[in-house]
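Many introductory courses stop at the sequence. We go one step further.
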Amino acid sequence: MSLIIQILVGGVVGWLTGKALETEGRLNVVREGHALDVIYGIIGALVGDRLFFWVVIGKGSQVSDFATAILGAITFVGVARLIANRLRRA
């Protein structure tokens, strides 16, 4: 998958993950809003392509590349939110 498509998929998935995890009062916890989720999604998509290749059968096809980018973006946004929440509580 080309780098541009990975960036686009990561950004969209990061934004959607942020919307799905949105709760009341979220802006008090994460003041940056959804822009940070998009950045986390892009990083997760780029890293996920390297880390999650073993999860998707048939590496090399375009569908498996999309699946690894989506899985990486969702994982990275979730972990980043968890770490940020723990650090803000401390």
